[in-house]
Amino acid sequence: MHHMTLAEIARGLADKKFSSVELTQTLLARIAQLDPQINSFISLTEDLALSQAQAADARRANGENGALLGAPIAHKDLFCTQGIRTSCGSKMLDNFKAPYDATVVAKLAAAGAVTLGKTNMDEFAMGSANESSWYGAVKNPWNLEHVPGGSSGGSAAAVAARLLPAATATDTGGSIRQPAAFTNLTGLKPTYGRVSRWGMIAYASSLDQGGPLARTAEDCAILLQGMAGFDPNDSTSIDEPVPDYSAGLNGSLQGLRIGVPKEYFSAGLDPRIAELIHNSIKALEKLGAVIKEISLPNMQHAIPAYYVIAPAEASSNLSRFDGVRFGYRCENPANLEDLYKRSRGEGFGSEVQRRIMVGAYALSAGYYDAYYLKAQKIRRLVKNDFMAAFNEVDIILGPTTPNPAWKLGAKSSDPVAAYLEDVYTITANLAGLPGLSMPAGFVDGLPVGVQLLAPYFQEGRLLNVAHQYQLNTDWHTRTPTGF
Ligand code: GLN
């Protein structure tokens, strides 16, 4: 049962081959048995899951249908879940039970999805390896000595290990696409504003976007359908109609113009990954796509700009965690200042503290123009590059990451080495564009992802291309040994 995709589960439930309760019990037992190896969950919500599964079975018995009705999922632990710990991977929020559901959580629950639990993540979504979680590192099911990627490493590892078919995740600089690449999944970061951020604990508000992680593009379409849409509670949510993503999967790729940026194939890219990317280009050409070389000349400035803007926003967002209103409070504070200092010093891990300091520095009066303002100008240049490119092509294709998943601990003493791994993903966040990563092959037994980027609100185009690719390749069907 655990090998089924969301689409297969929906058919099985509709045909009464099994009930949502049976499926939920099977997956909960599998999580209990296998998750100790990979540490992908922070909290399990067995009681909620079983009551949601019973309710979904009852709705189906009453003749209701729906792709998510009775489908088991999990939420990255930064989506607020009412009455359930919402930790953000941090000691700071270890005792925080959210008083309300995030819009994404509420929408998926209303569609009948069953929440099995909350998944592990880098602390406050800062990281690319899922090693900065207060709840311990997540292991990659493809090789337990390697990282699963981050910050949505728990969601990715759980889906890759077939503990459940799909999970929610968020992407500020690559945290859906990069773990998807590292664990052989399909992950979609939607256009900024497509999915509500209400109740999604903020890291860098102008970059954060929630989206689906699943094994196939078909399943990403199903999960995104349940997540997307205008939300008056989120002032950056965009009031655009949501297309039927599943209906759009079968469009022909004949004549599709694919842009391949020449900057993507620089010295930093593992040549074995470059070869796999060229193979996926050939596969798409066979389906009728036309390839064109393009240029994104400002790409080289994106990492420094991102690592000023994201920490700047984080330093502001995280100022609310002060030991007074909610979250961790230190023992026996001597006075108010001591309470602030020690609550934050003890509650936040070292990567979060580093980002708060970098961000506060970049925003300080003396350095604002030199760093923050300059980074915002680069952000506009990065966006302009994409706008020019999309005048000539329909999608942009390249690697998701320059290297496959590294060994646990390999980059933990050198944060900049980890930041450099985000080179292909962060530009989409700076520009607000949608991006998708899908399986493209293996290097030393570790999965490799190919990334597709599209113009604003063209998530359907990304899913269409990925689905057609997956009908003609079988990388996404490979399963890690032992799972
Ligand atoms: N690796 C990037 C960072 O650490 C992206 C993280 C994310 O997308 N949440 O900021």
Description of the structure:
The structure is a single chain. By secondary structure, the chain is α/β, with parallel strands linked by helices. It has 15 helices and 11 strands. The two termini are 13 Å apart. 56% of the residues are buried. Glutamine binds next to loops.
CATH topology of the domain at 6-254 and 436-447 and 462-477, by name, is: Amidase signature (AS) enzymes
User: What is the tally of helical segments?
Assistant: 15
- Strand tally is 11
The radius of gyration is 21 Å
Mean pLDDT: 97
How much helicity do the residues have? 25-40%
C-alpha geometry: globular
- Give the terminus-to-terminus CA distance: 13 Å
Helical/strand content category: alpha/beta
Beta-strand percent range: 5-15%
The CATH class name of the domain at 6-254 and 436-447 and 462-477 reads Alpha Beta
Strand order of the largest sheet: 1-3-2-4-6-5-10-11-9-7-8
Query: Which second-level CATH architecture of the domain at 6-254 and 436-447 and 462-477 applies?
Result: Alpha-Beta Complex
- Superfamily at the CATH H level of the domain at 6-254 and 436-447 and 462-477? Amidase signature (AS) domain
Largest sheet: 11 strands, mixed
Small molecules held by this entry:
glutamine
